[in-house]
Specification:
heterotrimer, A alpha+beta, B alpha/beta, C alpha+beta, A: alpha+beta, 5 strands, globular, B: alpha/beta, eight-stranded mixed β-sheet, 7 helices, 25% helix
Chain lengths: 107, 170, 551
């Protein structure tokens, strides 16, 4: 397995460091204080390779908190809110794209 | 690295000898496959035990003519997910009736001990010290086995009682 | 169904204890993720986009009402109130927590359920015909042999760290309902020259990036040699299968690289060399396992009872009956397929409430047995015909009396990008949209038998290669696109579909399917000529022209 640190990193825009929480799999984001949050709004936003590498190295050393940390694209929407930068990250952040409520079938 | 032989922590009596080094007198040695095969005739008369380190991508059949003179065969797990040495071990035990030491080397981890033992390994070069401390727990984790194997523990088919007569439905 | 005794149960309990210990060591940091991953996979635990996913094995697709109730309990207690039936006789929970798994696994084990070898590079759940034991066209019950193989290959000391995953499929019927040719080893029960039971053995099937259909290497392998012959195949694969490239590690690549004749020679030589000591499947063992399969004591009843005749006056019942009910080998009984494909919802999903209701119906009308097949539907394999009207009313009340079995809305789809970390594109919303376009039951019946299979990536869990219409999601510059294939088939005449042209974007897929279907309606010689037969007769060109003329 290639360590995230060995992967070629190309940072084209804004990114956050994201992972899944070890104990329950929840999607988490790295905060400025070196912690983790499930709220994207609280994530540390980066835009250069060096700090991304530094955060990933830190995260890799905390193996009992987060699994599979990587840099994910984010953008600011029209209201200046931080939102995920692609469909995969939108789904990770907000869940499946259809209504999960189960309704009785039409027959 | 810790060594377990026949279920107990032990000192490894074997010395690994490089291809260009001379053999120490009276000491059990582990040689590479190349060296062993090149010198097989001469080694057959050596008084002290001779073992071979055999890679998992080389035909185990090449060793078949020499098994009577081999006291140990060290098979490799370059990663613990690479399971070729399990087939080599089983072939040595079942097809070639090899009775000497079968040693697991490389990524030999706690959660694989039982598979290795059942495939016919008797000696373990254990990568993590903590894993060696749990050797006995790990190989006694299961008391029921479906298929017969080299460690000859009884299998379910041989030990269970006939089922109760058929009920209406279950 | 196979009934576990104290020995099977002890092994399951020991497995739970082992996995619980491994989870504990992972949570404490004693095991790294790299070390833990293969261990959790061998217990069916994946890490997906939002959560862990737990895959539970449903051996040979057979569930008791007790097991189904346990699955409902797990869905409610540890997940979000539903489960997802897959294309390989497994059930997945998509929202499970690692820290809850020791308890969840213990609960499951108490009902004889587990995730052993539902993932990882080992022999996976052995799948078979969901109508096994009740089908009219069957020479013997394949579940006996599926169970024998399951036992023999569970925690096998030689074959638990193979180059890649390994799937075995078995059928005993003339009509292949188990997609046997898509398996690493496909087995057909056959009778030998003296009437003895044995198997035709095929190897090297599999979908994914490089799809192949399994090819026969042994026309007849006597039953007593089954275990030895399967071991010979597995040993050749374990020794010589590629381990340097995950995309080339399946046995199908080895078979293809060597050529099927050379591969067969290797297996035969290996089998010959191990003959003196290879495991023998003697009659005593077959009898022993067979005795543990408890068959229903079928009631002595007649076909076409008056209760059934009376119910035919209800047009909705009649529609359901002619779609979802199939003949049973025992007079007065029927096989009832329960479609899990309601229009606009996720194919294969089943709520905890529905599971419990079904368990009750199975107890009341179906000798306590439920089945699951690769189409992601369920089935009550043995229902007394006189009970069909009452069963239908109860199914209807919980949204399970659907009449779209084998029709265009009976779509097979993988979880796709909405859940899966491997996916490139979504599959479920595509299925939902297509099913809404074709929601009209009369339209569906007019179109007739048509299988749509959707996969959200090249791993092909939605079996798109063998759909009459196959849909494969790919990613292009961050956008979801879909390749459409036509002409695939899953049965005994299995065939891989042909790509009709450039991929289309997410919001155009349902339009394309409507065009394909409209072309079929125009092209078919008569209403009885089903879609796949029209494609075979006219080729894909007319469909291609129809789809791309306007785009």
């Amino acid at each position: 397995m290639t360590s995230p640190l060995d992967q070629k990193l190309r940072i084209d825009g804004l990114v956050v460091i994201t992972a899944n929480r070890l104990r329950d799999g929840a999607v988490i984001y790295r905060t400025a204080g070196g912690g983790w949050t499930t709220d994207l709004a609280g994530a540390l936003v980066l835009d250069a390779v060096a700090p991304v590498k530094a955060e990933l190295a830190q995260a890799a050393g905390e193996g009992t908190l987060a699994v599979g940390a990587y840099a994910a694209p984010v953008v600011h929407d029209a209201n200046g809110r931080l939102v995920p930068g692609n469909l995969r990250e939108i789904i990770r952040s907000s869940g499946p794209t259809f209504d999960l409520r189960r309704v009785p079938a039409e027959t | 690295m810790r060594f377990v032989k026949d279920g107990r922590a032990a000192e490894d009596p074997y010395r690994r000898v490089a291809d260009d080094a001379s053999l120490p007198d009276g000491v059990p040695v582990l040689l590479t496959g190349e060296r062993f095969l090149a010198d097989a005739a001469a080694l057959a008369s050596r008084a002290a035990p001779v073992g071979v380190i055999w890679p998992n991508n080389r035909e185990i059949e090449e060793l078949a003519p020499h098994l009577a003179h081999l006291a140990a065969i060290a098979l490799a797990f370059p990663t613990f997910r690479d399971g070729r040495a399990y087939s080599q071990a089983r072939l040595l035990r079942e097809r070639y009736h090899y009775r000497g030491e079968l040693r697991a080397t490389g990524q030999v981890l706690r959660d694989q001990f039982l598979f290795m033992l059942r495939a016919g390994f008797t000696a373990f070069e254990i990568a993590k010290d903590g894993d060696a401390d749990h050797f006995a727990d790990a190989v006694h984790r299961y008391t029921r086995f479906y298929q017969p194997s080299a460690d000859r523990r009884p299998v379910i088919a041989a030990v269970r009682q006939p089922p109760t007569p058929q009920r209406k439905s279950a | 169904m196979y009934v576990y005794d104290e020995f099977d149960q002890t092994l399951l309990n020991e497995r739970v204890a082992e996995f619980s210990d491994q989870i504990k060591r992972r949570l404490s940091g004693e095991l790294s993720e790299e070390e833990f991953r293969p261990l959790r996979l061998m217990n069916g635990t994946y890490l997906q986009l939002h959560a862990y996913m737990l895959r539970i094995s449903i051996p040979y697709g057979t569930l008791s009402s007790k097991k189904l109730r346990m699955l409902a309990h797990i869905a409610r207690r540890y997940d979000r109130g539903y489960g997802h039936f897959t294309t390989r006789q497994n059930l997945q929970f998509h929202w499970i927590k690692l820290e809850d798994l020791p308890n969840a696994m213990a609960d499951l084990a108490s009902a004889g359920l587990h995730g052993i070898q539902t993932s990882g590079n080992c022999v996976r759940n052995i799948s078979t015909d969901q109508w096994a034991g009740v089908a009219r066209d069957e020479i013997a019950d394949p579940r006996i042999y599926a169970e024998i193989l399951r036992q023999h290959l569970t925690l096998h000391p030689e074959f638990s760290f193979l180059p890649r995953k390994f799937k075995i499929g078995i059928t005993g019927a003339a009509h292949d309902r188990a997609a046997v040719k898509m398996h690493d080893i496909g087995l057909w029960l056959r009778r030998g020259p003296n009437g003895e039971l044995g198997f035709e053995v095929a190897v090297g099937g599999g979908l994914g990036r490089t799809p192949y259909l399994a090819e026969t290497i042994r026309g007849f392998c006597p039953s007593r040699d089954l275990l030895g012959y399967v071991e010979a195949i597995l040993r050749v694969y374990n020794r010589y299968g590629r381990r340097d490239n995950i995309w080339k590690a399946r046995i199908k690549i080895l078979v293809h690289d060597l050529g099927v004749a050379k591969f067969r020679d290797e297996v035969e030589a290996e089998f010959e060399a191990s003959k003196d000591y290879a495991p023998v499947l003697d009659e005593r063992l077959v009898a022993e396992i067979t005795r543990r399969f408890h068959y229903p004591n079928f009631e002595n009843v007649e076909d076409n009872p008056p209760e059934l005749q009376a119910a035919f006056h209800d047009a909705r019942f009649r529609t359901w009956y002619f779609n979802a009910v199939a003949p049973h080998r025992v007079p007065g009984h029927a096989i009832v397929t329960i479609s899990l494909k309601p229009v606009g919802l996720t194919p294969g999903d089943c709520t905890a409430d529905q599971m419990e209701a079904l368990a009750d119906f199975a107890d009341q009308y179906g000798y306590g047995e439920i089945r699951n097949g690769h189409e992601q539907n369920l089935c009550l394999p043995s229902v007394r015909q006189r009970d069909l009207p009452a069963l239908w009313r109860k199914l209807d009340a919980v949204g399970l009396a659907l009449s779209n079995v084998n029709l265009i809305t009976d779509i097979i789809a993988c979880p796709g990008l909405d859940y899966c970390s491997l996916a490139n594109a979504r599959a479920i919303p595509v299925a939902m949209e297509i099913s809404k376009r074709f929601a009209d039951p009369d339209l569906q019946r007019n179109i007739g038998r048509l299988h749509i299979n959707i996969s959200g990536c090249i791993n092909a869990c939605g079996h798109h290669h063998i759909g009459h219409i196959g849909i494969l999601g790919v990613e292009k510059q961050g956008q979801e696109f879909y390749q459409i294939t036509l002409g695939g088939k899953a049965d005994e005449n299995a065939k891989l579909g042909t790509l009709i042209g450039p991929s289309v974007p997410f919001d155009k897929v349902a339009d394309v399917i409507e065009d394909v279907v409209a072309a079929y309606i125009e092209l078919r010689e008569r209403p009885e000529e089903i879609f796949i037969d029209t494609v075979r007769r006219v080729g894909i060109q007319p469909f291609k022209e129809r789809v791309y003329a306007v785009r």
